[in-house]
Amino acid sequence: MPLRFDLGPFEKLYIGKTVLLNSHERAYFVFEGETPILRGKDVLPPESASNFLEKLYCCLQKIYLEESFAEHQGSYLAHAVEALKEEPSLYSELKEVDTLVHGGEHYKALKRLKKLIRPSAFMIDKDEPQTYVRRQAYVRGSAPNSRK
């Protein structure tokens, strides 16, 4: 089943190890196939992770986007243990996340884990990047060598 995305100006879409940055206009995309995709609003930059629960989320999003559980399993387990030490009251929720991870359902695990993290950690910047150069709108007859 195809995935449909309606991206607003300067929204990001993370597709595997690639980031798609929309331009200044709204855009509509349809993806077919089996590739990991996250909207920019669901991505937590590693430098923004301020506690072990957020670091666990960053590790899990890397596992999901890079499809590399075996490679990051040690890091995942270490962050999970530290998150549990930091917030012992979240045992049942973290156990549920761990069950999803070990079942290969990384996207569902991310969604479940996101509910445990403060919403302000996911604030996204939709401002025009400083390096962005707008194209001039083409108006018929305004091109330098246009015929009239």
Q: Main attributes?
A:
3-stranded antiparallel sheet, 2 domains, alpha+beta, 148 residues, 4 helices, two-stranded antiparallel ribbon, 36% helix
Lay out the secondary structure.
Blueprint: E1 3-7, E2 12-15, E3 18-21, E4 27-31, E5 37-39, H1 52-66, H2 69-86, H3 91-102, H4 106-114
Antiparallel strand pairs: 1-4, 2-3, 2-5
Helix pairs in contact: 1-2, 1-4, 3-4
What does this entry show, briefly?
Helix content is 36%, strand content 14%.
Could you walk me through the main structural features you see in this protein, from its secondary elements to its overall organization?
This protein is α+β, with helices and mostly antiparallel strands. It folds into 2 domains: 1-39, no CATH class; 44-124, no CATH class. Helix content is 36%, strand content 14%. It has helices at 52-66, 69-86, 91-102, 106-114, and strands spanning 3-7, 12-15, 18-21, 27-31, 37-39. The strands form 2 sheets. It has a 3-stranded antiparallel β-sheet, with no helix packed on it. A two-stranded antiparallel sheet has the order 1-4. Helix 1 (52-66) packs antiparallel against helix 2 (69-86), helix 1 runs antiparallel to helix 4 (106-114) and helix 3 (91-102) packs antiparallel against helix 4. The longest helix has 18 residues, at 69-86. The N and C termini lie far apart (48 Å).
Order of helices and strands: EEEEEHHHH
User: How confident is the prediction overall: mean pLDDT?
Assistant: 86
Radius of gyration: 20 Å
Sheet with the most strands: spatial strand order: 3-2-5
Q: Termini, distance in Å?
A: 48 Å
Please indicate the percent range of residues in DSSP E strands (runs of 2 or more): 5-15%
- Secondary-structure-based class equals alpha+beta
How many E-type strands? Answer: 5
Q: Regions with pLDDT < 50 over 5+ consecutive residues?
A: none
How helical, in percent, are the residues? 25-40%
Question: Total helix count?
Answer: 4
Return the domain count.
Answer: 2
So what's the overall shape?
globular
